[in-house]
Amino acid sequence: MKPRLHVLSELYYPDDSATGYILTRIAEGLALSYDVHVLSGYGTARTGAVQLPARERRNGVLIDRCSSTLFNKNVVVLRTLNLLTISLSIFWQSIRTVRHGDVVLVVTNPPSLPFAAFLAVRLRRARCVLLIHDVYPEVLFATGLLRPGSWMAAILGWLNKRLCRRVERIVVLGRDMKRLIDRKLGANVGGTTIITNWADADVISPTPRNANRLLEKTSLQEKFVVQYSGNMGRTHGLEVILDVAARLEEEPLFHFLLIGSGAKLKGVEASLSVSRLNNVTILPPQSREELVDTLNACDVAIISFIPGIAGISVPSRMYNVMAAGKPIIAVADDDSELGIVVREEKIGWVVPPNDTMALLATIRNAQAKSKELNEMGRRARAVALKYSLERVLRSYQELLESLVNDGLASRQTDVGQMDHV
Q1: Is the pTM of this model over 0.85?
Q2: Please, which residues have CB within 8 angstroms of residue 223's CB and are 6 or more apart in sequence?
Q3: Within this chain, do residues 159 and 37 fall inside the same structural domain, yes or no?
Q4: CA 214 to CA 166: how far, in whole Å?
Q5: Could you give the 3-state DSSP secondary structure of residue 107?
Q6: 391-405: burial string, b at 16+ Cβ within 10 Å, e else
Q7: Alpha-carbon span 213 to 333, nearest angstrom
Q8: Is residue 87 domain-shared with residue 182, that is, in the same domain?
Q9: Contact in structure between 169 and 399 (CB atoms under 8 Å)
Q10: Rounded CA gap, 214 and 208, in Å?
Q11: What is the CATH classification number for the domain harbouring 279?
Q12: From CA 135, how far away is CA 180, in angstroms rounded?
């Protein structure tokens, strides 16, 4: 009989956000070896035309969807209500379904979910793996949502440290995140494993620029296109991109293509309505089926963060940008996983966050060195092939096998002690 694995995430299929997509692929990839049961919310799909079933089986995975409030997630108070209700809903479902000896994999988004999962795990005498996508409360400090040194910061810091010390395994997405977690927990705490995200290099590959439908649709075939594609959240540095665009407005060769949505989108749109820049185009998120065209619709990709995000978050989009064979301008802390990969693999440039003049010089330098740009793109594609889903799933298999074996050994010890008594 297969070991039972429960995957707890607010977002799951058919939600195609980064978290939803990543957890879906992991769960389905592990279904060959495990009896996988997903507890999730309805995500954004419930507000669409298709009403999702509360329970379904897909690609070997049993999915139970839990109800919650679905307020505007870009409003902090309303988003907080959403995360509390989905966490409570998944907790109650976990109490009903998790059994003694099962393994629970829970992601840190939303930040209240791991605490609900851990309580259920302890009540049901199961084992918990914590998958960290964002480090709390540090991400709240960086985005200005919480003041370091406040009583709330102290409470959240204590709770998160206690959680990390008590789960059986921790999975982080990069070297910078492992350094931060190890520093928080102390050198003597083990069980932290780096398992990166992956590139969909089997479906995303470099395509000819002159055949790109998105460039044709936006009439940007003759421009040097700098693309930002992905979430426009509070951790992302959109402001510096707009500052550079304003300085390049009189140089018609350059154009900035911003694709995505998030908490900062309204601010970006408001800024453009005032500045009326004609060298910036904003598009809504493109479907995953259009990702090949989307990621290839540029000469260079930019992944931009605000200061202080090193160790707190690792951008999953980095891997698919590399799969498309695009050089990367990383506006990021020098010791971030993004900065480390770009620098080590020689696939682009690393620019300090909020440094308008450095970013401006880098974009001009990229445009002036087409041969070097092409070489970076070829290296990026080669690097992407090293970050495969197969390798990621093998890493999860090894981690879960060690946890299951530890559990079997522990139960055998308990039985032996009872027999001795």
Answers
A1: yes
A2: 252, 253, 254, 255
A3: yes
A4: 48
A5: strand
A6: ebbeebeebbeebbe
A7: 34
A8: yes
A9: yes
A10: 12
A11: 3.40.50.2000
A12: 9
d(CA 215, CA 209): 8
Q: What DSSP line would sit under 214-241, residue for residue? A: HHHHTT-TTSEEEEEES---TTB--HHH
**DSSP structure string for 124-145:** HT-EEEEE-SB-TTHHHHHTTS
121, amino acid identity: V
Alpha-carbon distance of 328 to 148, in angstroms, equals 32
* Residues 328, 143, 230: CA angle, nearest 5 degrees: 35
Task: Give me the residue label for tokens 């946890």.
Answer: 403
Which residue is listed with tokens 């979910």? 113
The pLDDT tens digits of the residues spanning 190-242 come to: 579 999 999 999 999 999 999 999 999 999 999 999 999 999 999 999 999 99
Q: Which two tokens stand for residue 364?
A: 């001009």
For residue 184, is it within any domain?
Answer: yes
Per-residue pLDDT tens over the stretch 354-388: 999 999 999 999 999 989 999 999 999 999 999 99
How many whole angstroms separate alpha carbon 335 and alpha carbon 304? 14
* Spatial contact of 56 and 25, defined as CB atoms under 8 Å apart: no
